[in-house]
Amino acid sequence: MRRFSSGRQFGFTLVELVTTIILIGILSVTVLPRLFSQSSYSAFSLRNEFMAELRQVQQKALNNTDRCYRVVVSATGYQVSQFASRDSTGCTGTPLSPNPLSSQAFQGGAQLVLISNNAKSFYLDFDINGRASLACNGPCINVIANDTVAINISSEGYIYAN
């Protein structure tokens, strides 16, 4: 009769340990730089967010011909204000409310830059036909964060990405 030893050892094999170390190494090389980068704010996210805001303001301008809506961009963020009147150049007078309708601060060093003159501070009005006050047809605004992407505005008012 054979005797079996009850002192069996449990643990990980060398292959399991090496595989785990390799997986941890791959994750640390791909994920950690994204978490700790200087600008973790995505240019694509900011572009999509700002385009949605522009389209919403454009829709308000189309639906409320007695009011004027302005998007003001600064180096630190942007805000939307409502004015009681407009003329051929855009919104006139003072905003109807001291508080903007919406505002957004940039994060992680992100910024919006007007392509025509590299201005970081500018404003954008829409007329009653939905056309933007910026005199551009094509790439108008650069979104700069971890990448640089452009927002295009056509002369007819269509807002789109490349």
From TrEMBL:
Gene3D superfamilies: Glycoprotein, Type 4 Pilin. Keywords: Membrane, Transmembrane, Transmembrane helix. It comes from the Bacteria. The chain crosses the membrane at residues 12-36. NCBIfam families: IV_pilin_GFxxxE (TIGR02532). This is Msha pilin protein. It comes from Shewanella decolorationis S12. The lineage of its organism: Bacteria, Pseudomonadati, Pseudomonadota, Gammaproteobacteria, Alteromonadales. The gene is mshC.
